[in-house]
Amino acid sequence: MLDTTIRDFAQAKNYGTISFHLADGSIATHVMWVHADDEHILINTEVHRAKYKAVAANPKVTVVVWDNANPYAYAEVRGTVTSEVRGAEALASINALSQKYSGTDYPGKIESERVILKITPERQRAQGL
Fold it and tell me: What band does 74 get if pLDDT is binned at 50, 70 and 90?
């Protein structure tokens, strides 16, 4: 279960990062739009991207969401990508995220297929929230 404070914080207009393991063992971190449901941190990406391929090979990730007004107020969730959602729901999700962060539907070209990564928390903490 996702802590309700962290869930609400991720549902607000705060940016996040996802860190994941690459095939060579190094760690990559990408700035992302984030969302949450009652149980998961949610990340939306496309299946052709390196982050998706890396997470498919090693589903252990860390997501940090920070307060746009105060980056020292943040939430960290370490967990595992335990499921994914594709199709119309993933497409609707990227448009909803784009509306949340920029006020318009997603303007980018979709090159493959959108996918929502559902991250189940194993460790979660908040600082300054």
Answer: very high
Using alpha carbons only, give the angle 18, 79, 3 rounded to the nearest 5 degrees: 100
Strands, sheet with 16-21, edge to edge from the N-terminal-most edge strand: 27-32, 16-21, 60-67, 70-86, 114-127, 41-46, 35-36
CB atoms within 10 A of CB 42: 22
State the residue for tokens 């393991």.
21
Q: Say yes or no: domain 4-127 is CATH 3.90.180.10.
A: no
Query: At 41, which amino acid appears?
Result: I
pLDDT of residue 79: 98
pLDDT at residue 11, rounded to an integer:
97
Q: What is the mean pLDDT of residues 27-55?
A: 97
Phi-psi region of 41 (alpha: psi -120 to 50; beta: other; left: phi over 0): beta
Q: What's the mean pLDDT when you consider all of the chain?
A: 96
Burial class of residue 10 in the structure, from the number of CB atoms within 10 Å of its CB (0-12 exposed, 13-18 middle, 19+ buried): buried
Domain boundaries defined on the chain: 4-127
